[in-house]
Amino acid sequence: MEILLSLLVGVLMSVSVWMLLSRNLVKFLFGLVLISNVANLIIFKVGGLTMGAPPLIVDGIAAEYANSLPQALVLTAIVIGFGLVSFTLVLALKAYQAIGTLNVDEMTLAEKRQDPDDSSEPS
Amino acid sequence: MNGLLIACLLIPMITAAVSFISTNSAKLRGATSIAGSGLLLMIAIILLYQVAIGGPVSNQMGGWQAPMGITLIADTLSAILIVVTAIVALSVNIYAIGDISEERIAGGFFTFLNMLIAGVMGAFLTGDLFNLYVWFEVMLISSFALLVLGGNKVQLDGAVKYVAINLISTVLLLTAIGLLYGLTGTLNMADLSMRVPQVENQALVAVVAVLFLIAFGIKAAVFPLYFWLPASYHTLPISVTAVFAALMTKVGIYALMRTFTLIFPGEHSAIDMTLLCLGVLTMILGVFGAMTHSDIRRILAFHVIGSIGFMLLGLGLGSALAMGAAIFYMVHGILIKALLFMIAGIIGKLGGSFELSRLGGLYQERPGFSILFLLAALSLIGIPPLSGFWAKLLIIEAGLHHDAPLIITSVILVSLLTFIPLIRIWSEAFWKPKPLDVELLSAEQSSDEPLDSKTPPSVATGTEVVAPSISLPNKYAWFPVIGLSIIVLLIGFFPGNLIKLSDSAAKSLMNPSTYLDTVLPNRPSVKANANEVQQ
Question: For position B43, what pLDDT does the model report?
Fold first, then answer.
């Protein structure tokens, strides 16, 4: 199970890096969603998997129990990740409406204005 | 139990909520926010006093003892930075009243600003690695909101880049934290500091350390990862730029200092070497970047990057002396960056543009203000007896102790080069006569970039977009500028106390036994072993 999960992490990570390298903002965003889930899986995996046991200690019985901390961490990270992704989606939509493109190479408004002024600068 | 630590987090949060809920009036919201940050500053000063007298103060949240619960801890470094943060928060709050448009305030500007401050405070105070991640997120999401608030096209464009790179750094940070947890089974930084040396697979520890370096390096705008900063900072209203430039990157540096002294101390000579190289490169590229630009805000944004390099050098040299120098530089850097950006905002209002070619004659109009700018600029360059001089002197002294001629040479060289862009601002904006074709140029410019139809030009960005409307800066803008100038002058003339404080902060960073004792009062017998590794 741990091997399978590790392999899954590897595959998902490579896929998401490939998508993050895309010039298309939407593809980039999907890569971001994927890679933040990969990070969650990593936490889950390195926390150690315990099959078929609850994350509870029953009083007086020395039964097997799962480590609940990684689950709490992953839960926190999922919530935060969800907030960030939904913000970024809206930002992408607004950027598309305002700038008219999703190709990040063409999003040069913030930096282009500088160039003509620079070249005309006497110094 | 110490209520001050929690107060440092709660006050900005409550201010954020109250300023938004209680009133719709922009003036009242500003007043609430100023009152909140004033209170925060007082608490921060009391906290610094306590820590300076009695050593680190800690607080176990929810009553769970240290490795289990979340720890808040203020050692000298945190306490110094919290005071400086509170000073910047107060100044920016006052400055914002005159600078930020009504629509932005209606959109919750003061709420996000205060949440940002809460995030910064939390990052400085926490003693738990995962909690650090959460505070980074609080800071990040508030900064996103500030970035796009009232956004025009240019702002959105800058925001996309800023958001994208910061989210990647967040994922890296989370991965690094996860891996470290897998290796050690704990997230408490004090506990980690004892357990990391015991990990069998030290190669994996080094990998995790590098992941932390990259994640915090992106936040701190370190050499190969700084491109997002000059791409986004100049698109924002000056108040926002001032708080970003002063605080955001320094939180990254703080996190680097904390992790690389507490969790991955010594032994990693390769990482120290990397830090030094990155420091020199960041410094040099920062100053070269500043030279190539002619927009005041972009020049200053590159100086932010340059000053990050100086702090990295202090961290990379790795001795208590160098660390003290870095901490002193951090305090100086935070204050001077906030001050310079606020001054830039006033220049923009007075001159109607941030573009050097369109400015001029400010010295004739406003000699007093010009002297203020000159003081701030000379302090950044490092002319004695201003604060920047002491900061750079301390770093050079540390370099001498380490016998590192290359470091000293590059520090001096970069300081000299810093002179060029700043004196260019001086000669172009203040000294040369006002250009005659200002109105012609600005008319051309405003047709170049039509605004988002929904957002009419605001007072804040209006200075840049509708250039002909040269306006007087709001009277509120002067208080923080003059106040910060006085603080910077005081640090320059009486650096002794701050040097003493930052040295003691550095010593407790290098030998964290008091930090560990505060967090884990009944440390197990690994104590001797842990100390051995740390020295």
Answer: 93
Q: Which residue of B has its CA nearest to A95?
A: B156
Considering only the beta carbons, identify the residue of A77, A87, A110 that sits closest to B157: A110
pLDDT value of position B211: 92
Domains and CATH numbers, chain A: 2-51+66-108 (1.10.287.3510)
Label residue B119 by pLDDT band (50, 70, 90): very high
Give dist(CA B368, CA B376) in Å, integer: 13
- Are A80 and B168 a contacting pair at CB < 8 A? no
Report yes or no on whether pTM surpasses 0.90. no
Query: Which of A28, A77, A95 faces B156 most closely, judged by CB atoms?
Result: A95
Question: How do residues B358-375 score in pLDDT, each as one tens digit?
Answer: 887 888 888 888 888 889
Average pLDDT, 10 consecutive residues per value, chain A (123 residues): 89 93 90 92 84 74 77 90 90 87 79 49 36
What is the maximum span of chain B, computed from C-alpha positions, in angstroms? 76
Q: What is the mean pLDDT of chain B?
A: 84
Query: Which tokens in the block code for residue B19?
Result: 């300023």
Nearest CA distance, B175 vs chain A (angstrom): 5
Note whether A84 contacts B171, CB cutoff 8 Å: no
Q: Kindly indicate whether the ipTM for this predicted assembly is greater than 0.95, answering yes or no.
A: no
Structurally, chain B folds into a number of domains equal to 1
| List of chain B residues whose C-beta atoms are within 8 Å of the C-beta of residue A47 | 178, 181-182
B535 lies in some domain: no
**From B156, B234, B293, residue closest to A99, measured CB to CB:** B156
Range of the domain at B367: 3-261+270-522+526-530
Neighbour count for residue B27 (Cβ, 10 Å): 11
- Of B424, B423, B398, B212, whose CA–CA distance to B310 is shortest? B398
Cα separation values, B339 from B78, B308, B381, B478, B488, Å: 22, 17, 14, 11, 9
Longest pairwise C-alpha distance within chain A: 83
